[in-house]
Amino acid sequence: MREAIAPEVERAAHGLRVRGHQLHLEPRGRPPLGFLAHARGARPVLPERTIATPATVALLEAAQPRALRRTAALPAAWGKSFALGTLRLTVHPAGHVLGSAQLRCEADGLDLVYAADIGGSGKRASLTAEPREQLSCRTLVIRALYGAPRYVFPPREELLERVRAFVDASLREGKTPVLIAAALGAAQDLALWLGGRGHTLRMHATAHRACEVYAAQGVPLKGFTKLDADGDVVVVPPTARLSRLQLGDHRVCSLGGRALDGVKGVDEAIPLSDHAGFDELLDYALRSGAQRVLAVEGHADELAAALRDKGLEAMAIREHHQLPLPGF
């Protein structure tokens, strides 16, 4: 076994940080400088300075204006490098939601890509996010939300057709179809797919605001309206309490990657995920040509083990500072 070498990122007080630099990757709290990969699930407290794409900034302005006012936003354009201290940074589309980005970090001795939440590609690609770019690098940091082998998702249009079949069957029964979906990402794909086929989607406020931003950014959405307006399909996020909504007779379909694990209390569950599945994460890492892969979050241990089986040097970064380096 070779001598262990400290990884290029480390856990710090505010979360993941590029070793030897102030840059935090999607941090907690309020460090001096942080990168925000996308607007979905953004924290109410942002770093003092926040690197993000213009679309992410626009989505934050719609959803969390107070948080945005308390940070100095540093909008980053696709593929245009800029310097912060001794780091040279470039953002590239991640294919997760509109504006979602991967971050390339370069400095003396450092060639690192933070892939964050990448989406699918090809037949699994989001209909409303920028197409994901495949990057090459020496060190890859990749989120492993669905990094376990059981998470392999069918083509996106196949899943959207299953959603349409659920909607049509519910309406034939005289019941309101209720779709539980992420307010940012899945909801906009639903608006594009179902709205373009004659349905009007009554959107929860968070999803409706995001749809307005998508439309303003040039994504051709139609057929969406507010939750209290007229329409034949209801779309709400997983946090919504259906018991508080006056839905009458209805059927519920849960949309998301966890549908592969089974979802209780719904009529149907469809694995329509905005994230890359296990096979796509594995493929992305192999195509990156990385000498080292650092898997974080989710099923990081399982993804790292699968990558080691493919001959790559890979490890999982855990919440604690003890970092075992199996295979090194």
Give me the Rg, rounded: 20 Å
The CATH architecture category of the largest domain equals: 4-Layer Sandwich
Beta-strand percent range = 25-35%
Arrangement of strands in the largest sheet: 7-8-9-10-11-18-19
For the terminal residues, how far apart are their CA atoms?
6 Å
Might you state the CATH topology name of the largest domain? Metallo-beta-lactamase, Chain A
Figure out the total of helices: 7
Give the C-level CATH assignment of the largest domain. Alpha Beta
Biggest beta sheet attributes: 7 strands, mixed
Kindly report the name of the CATH homologous superfamily of the largest domain: Ribonuclease Z/Hydroxyacylglutathione hydrolase-like
- The oligomerization state is single chain
Q: Provide the residue-averaged pLDDT.
A: 93
Secondary-structure-based class equals alpha/beta
How many domains would you count in the coordinates?
2
Q: Which parts are unreliable, with pLDDT below 50 for 5 consecutive residues or more?
A: 320-328
Instruction: Write down how many β-strands occur, each being a DSSP E stretch of 2 or more residues.
Output: 19
- Overall, the morphology is globular
Order of helices and strands: EEEEEHHEEEEEEHEHEHEEEEHEHE
> What is the percent of helical residues?
10-25%
